[in-house]
């Protein structure tokens, strides 16, 4: 029987060198290779007459070579190879760059199939860098070809060959992962055929059937795993917090009124806390919707019921800010709050941990420092994790294990479309604050090109003269940290068989020009300090600064001692400076939509009209322009989340590798939402009929779910 976990290097045509390259794509085993699905396909199966081709289309032409292959060296590293082909309807020039071996492979008078992109000039047609086969001996044409995500040094041909050999290893093997009755009930193809057709489809219909089966399995296993997590949580006896402790005591003491959405969420949390089942609730709320105050009121109920509270935030800046807010609201009720960070001095840490273990601290707020072994609670009753997407499953488990099945509230300002959240977080109940406080003014957003720089600078000065403060966000700290997307695009382009060397060289020159434009934060600070605003107070903050330095700069900015703060995305989450009314994002086209929305949320937190100015390169991609358009059109985080999901797909949308959320190899939740909903009902039925999947007929599913749970926890 074939071992799907065997090292990929033992697949025919791979070996140690190619295996190392495949490892960079997270392909380590035979199974990884088989489930490394194409990102798109090229239909090279249908041929077209030369007379019918359209400018710009990629097409297959069957034609005879009617001229000798001509080689011209135009400079040291550039050789152009040309020939002319002809069918019954017309002629076309075929051009390759730096592929001199073509001369040995193409003979005048012979018939070939060529697949490539057509360029229509004034008086002739040209096809550049086509792949080709001798007519009747098709290997690279005459079929639907898979295109895989790849790297610079690993060609499409190499990946296809490896996948083809991996599929041959499956012949005659029993590899089915779904029970027979599931395949029949939902009209699904078997796994063997599905893998063959998803990689090398015989036609479009078969490819879609294969995809349906593979997506169904991926989503079903995820749903069953989430239901199991939720079921285990419900089996535990939780903490029953006191009905006599009223959240209204804190609500009535606040200097502002809560929104209806906040009150509704607090009612849901109150009911959870008073039940004997552990609360496991996700709280979604857009930037500035008031999630923190909800967690403060929940903490009050826990402490006054005799328990301690842990609040975990992803950054020292956000944790410090939470500490100040918790202290301000809870200290009048004799609730003792403390802060612990990675940078907290050892002596102070020891003091805090001793007090915590003795029950002298009621609410401990911190970063990942909360997860260390020496942080021991006397009686932990409530755990709140802020910006849930920054923490993995294991971190959530580590903090909750410090109590006896404490209630858990996970908060995020990264909106996820509601239907998607209900399904993705199947192990959590969901609350949404879908309303902003009434005093929040809409942030005016403008996307501008470099030509508007002077007007933007005048606008910044005007706001500072009126007493406001300004954020300027840049994508880089120093050049070596650059992850230039345009360079990645070039690598992708170079990896295809149809390399247009002239075009690639031009793109490289352009990319390096753009890279030179991307100033590091320190450089931007110098420009703003010395060239643009020498008379104003300019400072910078970035992730690699020492925590103490970072906090000092942020403190000065909050106290109004800095006019312009130049920053990386370190200020993306939670920083609250009500007097800051302008957010300028340099090279905004390089940020994702969700990130831009988070950054915009740093302004508009006070009484003043606020503005977000997105400076972008007019030469940026179509996706970059779409992002700029979306940001100008809406302030609604949920609308932005939908658009982000549409533009980037789920893998990038969630950043699954570091965030411990489900990672999909083939499913696309934007496209596959209808199937996701139907699969959820299948999972619920299975859970109701055979909880824990113990019946013999469900043993294959049991194995899949165990593997998924093991993978999720390891994240």
**What is the global morphology?**
globular
Helicity level:
40-55%
The biggest beta sheet is recorded as: 7 strands, parallel
Strand percentage, roughly?
Answer: 15-25%
| Overall strand count | 21
Tally of individual helices: 25
CATH domain class name of the domain at 444-482 and 518-634: Alpha Beta
Average pLDDT metric: 84
CATH superfamily of the domain at 444-482 and 518-634: P-loop containing nucleotide triphosphate hydrolases
CATH topology of the domain at 444-482 and 518-634: Rossmann fold
What low-confidence regions span 5 or more consecutive residues with pLDDT below 50?
478-518, 651-661
Derived structural class: alpha/beta
- Strand line-up in the sheet with most strands: 11-12-10-13-14-9-15
- N- to C-terminal distance: 30 Å
The radius of gyration computed from the alpha-carbon positions, rounded to a whole number of angstroms, is 30 Å
CATH architecture of the domain at 444-482 and 518-634: 3-Layer(aba) Sandwich
State the main characteristics.
OB fold (Dihydrolipoamide Acetyltransferase, E2P), 25 helices, 715 residues, alpha/beta, six-stranded parallel β-sheet, Rossmann fold
Question: How would you describe what is shown here?
Answer:
By secondary structure, the protein is α/β, with parallel strands linked by helices. Among the domains are: 8-41 and 150-208, no CATH class; 46-142, Nucleic acid-binding proteins (OB fold (Dihydrolipoamide Acetyltransferase, E2P), Beta Barrel), CATH 2.40.50.140; 248-275 and 290-412, Rossmann fold; 444-482 and 518-634, 3-Layer(aba) Sandwich (Rossmann fold). The chain has 25 helices and 21 strands. It has a seven-stranded parallel sheet with strand order 11-12-10-13-14-9-15, with helices on both faces. Helix 21 (622-633) runs antiparallel to helix 22. The longest helix is centred in the first third of the chain and has 32 residues, at 204-235. The protein starts with 14 loop residues before the first helix and ends with a helix.
């Amino acid at each position: 029987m074939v071992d799907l976990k065997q090292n990929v290097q033992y697949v025919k045509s791979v070996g140690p060198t190619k295996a190392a390259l495949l490892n960079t794509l997270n392909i380590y085993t035979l199974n990884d290779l088989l489930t490394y699905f194409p990102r798109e396909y090229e239909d090279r199966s249908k041929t077209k007459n030369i007379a019918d081709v359209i400018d710009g289309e990629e097409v297959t032409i069957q034609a005879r070579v009617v001229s000798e292959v001509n080689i011209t060296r135009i400079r040291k590293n550039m050789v152009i190879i040309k020939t002319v082909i002809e069918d019954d309807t017309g002629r076309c020039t075929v051009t390759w760059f730096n592929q001199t071996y073509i001369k040995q492979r193409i003979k005048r008078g012979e018939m070939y199939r060529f697949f490539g992109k057509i360029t229509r000039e004034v008086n002739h047609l040209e096809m550049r860098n086509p792949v080709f086969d001798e007519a009747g001996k098709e290997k690279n044409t005459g079929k639907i070809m898979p295109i895989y995500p790849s790297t610079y040094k690993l060609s499409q041909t190499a990946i296809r060959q490896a996948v083809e050999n991996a599929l041959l290893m499956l012949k005659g093997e029993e590899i089915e992962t779904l029970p027979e009755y599931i395949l029949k009930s939902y009209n699904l193809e078997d796994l063997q055929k599905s893998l063959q057709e998803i990689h090398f489809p015989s036609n479009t219909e078969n490819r879609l059937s294969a995809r349906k089966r593979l997506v169904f399995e991926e989503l079903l296993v995820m749903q069953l795993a989430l239901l199991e997590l939720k079921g285990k949580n419900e089996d535990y006896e939780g903490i029953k917090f006191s009905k006599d402790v009223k959240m209204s005591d804190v609500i009535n003491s606040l200097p502002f009124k809560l929104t209806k959405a906040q009150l509704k969420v607090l009612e849901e949390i109150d009911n959870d806390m008073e039940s004997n089942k552990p609360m496991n609730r996700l709280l979604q709320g857009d930037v500035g919707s008031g999630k923190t105050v909800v967690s403060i009121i929940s903490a009050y109920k826990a402490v006054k019921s005799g328990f301690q509270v842990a609040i975990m935030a992803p950054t020292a800046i956000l944790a410090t800010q939470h500490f100040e807010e918790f202290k301000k609201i809870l200290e009048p009720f004799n609730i003792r709050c403390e802060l612990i960070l990675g940078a907290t001095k050892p002596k102070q840490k020891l003091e805090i941990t001793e007090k915590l273990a003795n029950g002298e601290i009621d609410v401990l707020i911190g970063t990942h420092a909360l997860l260390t072994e020496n942080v021991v609670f006397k009686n932990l009753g409530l755990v709140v994790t802020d910006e849930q997407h920054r923490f993995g499953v294991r971190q959530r488990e580590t903090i909750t294990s410090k109590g006896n099945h404490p209630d858990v509230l996970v908060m995020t300002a990264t909106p996820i479309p509601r239907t998607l959240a209900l399904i993705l977080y199947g192990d959590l109940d969901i609350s949404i604050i879908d309303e902003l406080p009434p005093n929040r003014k809409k942030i005016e957003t403008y996307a501008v090109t470099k030509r508007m720089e002077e007007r933007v600078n005048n606008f910044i000065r005007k706001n500072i003269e009126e007493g406001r403060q300004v954020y300027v966000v840049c994508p880089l700290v120093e050049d070596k940290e650059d992850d230039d997307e345009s360079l990645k695009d070039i690598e992708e382009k170079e990896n295809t068989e149809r390399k247009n060397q002239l075009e690639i060289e031009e793109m490289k020159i352009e990319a390096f020009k753009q890279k030179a434009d991307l100033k590091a934060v320190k450089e931007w600070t110098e420009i703003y300090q010395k060239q643009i605003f020498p008379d104003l107070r300019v400072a910078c903050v970035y992730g690699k600064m020492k925590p103490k330095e970072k906090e000092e700069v942020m403190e000065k900015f909050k106290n109004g001692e800095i006019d312009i703060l130049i920053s990386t995305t370190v200020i993306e989450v939670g920083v609250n400076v009500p007097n800051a009314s302008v957010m300028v994002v340099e090279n905004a086209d390089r940020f994702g939509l969700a990130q831009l929305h988070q950054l915009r949320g740093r302004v508009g937190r006070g009484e003043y009209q606020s503005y977000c100015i997105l400076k972008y390169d007019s030469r940026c991609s179509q996706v970059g322009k779409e992002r700029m358009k979306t940001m100008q059109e809406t302030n609604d985080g949920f609308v932005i989340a939908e658009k982000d999901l549409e533009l980037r797909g789920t893998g990038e949308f969630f950043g699954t590798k570091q965030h411990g959320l489900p990672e999909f190899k083939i499913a696309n939740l934007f496209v596959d939402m209808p199937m996701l909903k139907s699969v959820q009902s299948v999972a619920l039925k299975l859970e109701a009929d055979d909880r824990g999947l113990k019946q013999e007929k469900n043993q294959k599913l049991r194995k899949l779910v165990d593997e998924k749970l093991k993978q999720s926890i390891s994240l």
